[in-house]
Amino acid sequence: EKNKNNKYKVGTIIQHIKSGTIYEIISVGYIETSLTPAYSYKCLSDDIIWHRPITEVEETDRFMVLTTMH
């Protein structure tokens, strides 16, 4: 299955450490210009959707998991 090795699954709730903002992972895809694998995640307070390379989400201390989907 595509993307099965990603740390976070669709539906995982994460919190941005610095701002405290809470997001939900809504999809896994690619950044068009570079074909870099990326998460799309939605801010739960205003429904704005953000995109960030998977490595920036998984390999930094920017986010912590609040709930994990299996």
Any overview of this molecule?
The protein has 70 residues and is mainly beta. The protein contains one helix and five strands, in the order E-E-E-E-H-E. A hairpin with a 4-residue loop joins strand 2 (22-31) and strand 3 (36-43). It is globular. The model has no long low-confidence stretch (mean pLDDT 91).
Write a brief structural summary.
With 70 residues, the protein is mainly beta. It contains one helix and five strands, in the order E-E-E-E-H-E. It has a five-stranded antiparallel β-sheet with strand order 4-3-2-1-5.
Helix/strand/pairing class, anyone? mainly beta
Fraction in helix = under 10%
Global Rg:
11 Å
Rounded to the nearest angstrom, the distance between the terminal CA atoms is: 14 Å
Count of DSSP strands: 5
* Overall shape: globular
Strand order of the largest sheet: 4-3-2-1-5
> What is the beta-strand fraction?
over 45%
Q: If helices are DSSP runs of H or I spanning 4 or more residues, what is the number of helices?
A: 1
Task: Please tell me the overall pLDDT.
Answer: 91
Main sheet properties: 5 strands, antiparallel
Unreliable segments of 5+ consecutive residues: none
Instruction: Please trace the helix and strand order, writing H or E for each element.
Output: EEEEHE
